[in-house]
Design a protein that fits this description.
alpha+beta; Arc Repressor Mutant, subunit A; Endonuclease, Chain A; rod-shaped
């Protein structure tokens, strides 16, 4: 029913149409015409009056109700749409705050297998980070398949365009050409791990995300979404970053 689409309940639509046919009327004929029970008819009439679609007058102590001109329904719909739009804008303004609240409470662990899984985890950085934000990698292994390097070269170009900062610590066994390449992109600082430090896995993090990667035959990537754990990982990284030195292009291993 069109009146339902306009925002009227089934009972409101039936009472309004009954009054439209009856003209000014007391409650009795409205109940009979609309088939609405006596116990709820007054509540429905009150709702219609609040919407401006029904009016009432008292004659000799008897209350009579009358339906407003159908044009009032159009006015009601327009007013309703206006209020809905205002509500939509207010909710839209609240979305960032609501997302932050959800992130603060969220704690989740996801496990990915294979190169595509690792890529899927890294791609999430573009969902959470904006220009000027940073992610870090630590313990990047010296030996990687060529398609790994091809992906990172493309990604660094994308990251640079987005203005996202990258700090990374590579195994000291990594070919200097790789670090030279990573440092050729804007907002990228790639260094060797401090002397005497090596790890069997690599770590990555940003905001409330901590990642552990294992370079097995089928790479395994574990993504942890937890603010406290991410904070601990970041402190761990910062400790070793402070001990590292900027990469020199003419550095000899």
């Amino acid at each position: 029913m069109a009146l339902g689409e306009a925002g009227l309940t089934d009972g409101e639509a039936r009472v309004y149409l009954a009054l439209l046919e009856l003209g000014p009327s007391t409650v009795g004929p409205v109940i009979e015409k609309s088939k609405i029970s006596h116990s709820i008819v007054y509540r429905i009439l009150a709702g219609l009056m609040e919407k401006g679609l029904v009016a009432h007058i008292s004659r000799e102590g008897v209350r009579q109700y009358s339906a407003a001109n159908p044009e009032k329904i159009v006015e009601y719909v327009e007013e309703r749409q206006k209020k809905l739009e205002e509500s939509r804008k207010k909710l839209q303004e609240m979305v960032p705050a609501l997302q932050n609240m959800a992130s603060a409470k969220e704690s989740e662990v996801r496990v990915f297998v294979g190169f595509r899984g690792m890529v899927a985890v890294h791609e999430r950085t573009y969902q959470k980070l904006k220009r000027g934000d940073m992610f870090y990698y630590m313990g990047i292994l010296p030996e990687q398949q060529e398609h790994f390097h091809a992906y990172w070269k493309r990604d660094h170009m994308r990251r640079a365009r987005a203005g996202i900062i990258s700090h990374s610590l590579f195994s000291r066994k990594t070919d200097p050409k790789i670090l030279k390449n990573r440092n050729s992109y804007a907002y990228s600082d790639a260094r060797y791990m401090p002397e005497g430090l090596d790890t069997p896995a690599w770590f990555m993090g940003y905001k409330d995300v901590a990642v552990i990667g294992m370079q097995t035959r089928e790479p395994i990537t574990i993504e942890i979404i937890n603010q406290e754990i991410a904070g601990s990982f970041r402190k761990y990284f910062d400790h070793f970053w402070e001990q590292s030195k900027p990469f020199k292009k003419n550095k000899k291993k």
